């Protein structure tokens, strides 16, 4: 049985745009993750909104200190 060789295609502009719009950050640390994050939760939400991200996950280490600020920013914005 002969198999046809697969042709590797270069991603088109459409593929790149689709990948950009469907990207969601699920590993994001705020300044409440000591030694790991820098930005305030409000800043992270504002940047995600500016990039038209459909969602954002806040994954701070060992605490929920930034959860309320993150929730308020996401809800208002």
- How many strands appear in the DSSP assignment? 2
**Which residues sit in consecutive blocks of at least 5 with pLDDT less than 50?**
none
Strand order of the largest sheet: 1-2
Mean pLDDT: 81
Name the helicity range. Answer: 25-40%
Q: Structural class from helices and strands?
A: mainly alpha
Total helical segments: 3
Largest sheet: 2 strands, parallel
Shape descriptor: elongated
How much of the residues is beta strand, in percent?
Answer: 5-15%
Please give a structural write-up:
- The protein is mainly alpha-helical and 77 residues long.
- The protein has a domain at 24-76.
- The protein has three helices and two strands; from the N terminus they run H-E-H-E-H.
- The chain has helices at 13-21, 41-50, 67-76; strands at 25-28, 56-58.
- The chain has a two-stranded parallel sheet.
- Strand 1 (25-28), helix 2 (41-50) and strand 2 (56-58) form a beta-alpha-beta unit.
- Helix 2 (41-50) packs parallel to helix 3 (67-76).
- The chain is elongated.
- The protein starts with 12 loop residues before the first helix and ends with a helix.
- The mean pLDDT is 81.
């Amino acid at each position: 049985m002969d198999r046809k060789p697969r042709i590797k295609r270069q991603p088109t502009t459409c593929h790149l745009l689709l990948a950009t719009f469907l990207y969601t950050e699920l590993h994001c640390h705020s300044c409440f993750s000591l030694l790991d994050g820098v930005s305030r939760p409000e800043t992270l939400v504002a940047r995600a909104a500016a990039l038209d991200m459909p969602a954002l996950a806040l994954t701070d280490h060992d605490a929920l200190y930034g959860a309320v600020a993150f929730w308020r920013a996401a809800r208002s914005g």
